[in-house]
Specification:
By secondary structure, this protein is α+β, with helices and mostly antiparallel strands. Helix content is about 15%, strand content about 40%. The chain has a domain of about 100 residues: Immunoglobulins (Immunoglobulin-like), CATH 2.60.40.
Length: about 150
């Protein structure tokens, strides 16, 4: 009977050690990337409007996060990103600029690659519609006295 109790206690102790080891491994999660948002909707904008948006992210892991070159879905969307490692708990941004000289609806993506253990690739998306600038109102044709012209 004593051997059975001793054996059961050893098994419980071994189980506790294994469980503790798994918890320690979970805490060593490496770099993790977390974005505030992965979609930006510009809505309706005019030709020549500011097409820049900053996607904010945080390294929620416990090791430095390193971003490699983001890839955009077309040449009209240009990303810029931090080249230095992002330390644990640090927040930074990826700047995405859309060329607003193209009239019409757009829906573009930028794929961000990193050493993050949770998401090695994250897709950021921008969308909206570029409208032509409205025609400016022409000034009324007035006579030198300031009165409106009279049709005869």
């Amino acid at each position: 009977m004593k051997k059975i109790v001793l054996f059961a206690m050893i098994l419980l102790f071994a189980g506790a050690v294994v469980a503790q080891d798994k918890n320690v491994k979970k805490k060593k999660n490496g770099p993790q990337i977390s974005f505030k948002t992965t979609l930006h909707d510009y809505g309706e904008i005019y030709v020549g409007a500011n097409g820049t948006y900053n996607f904010e992210f945080t390294n929620t892991g416990n090791e430095p996060l390193i971003l490699s070159k983001p890839r955009s879905s077309c040449g009209c969307t240009v990303p810029s990103w931090p080249k230095q490692p992002i330390l644990p708990g640090e927040t930074n941004k990826i700047k995405v600029t859309y060329n607003t000289s193209h009239i019409g609806a757009f829906n573009k993506t930028v794929t961000v690659y990193s050493n993050a253990k949770n998401k090695s690739a994250v897709v950021l998306r921008i969308k909206g519609k570029v409208n032509p600038k409205p025609a400016e109102a022409l000034p009324e044709n007035k006579t030198s006295t300031g009165a409106a012209p009279v049709n005869k």
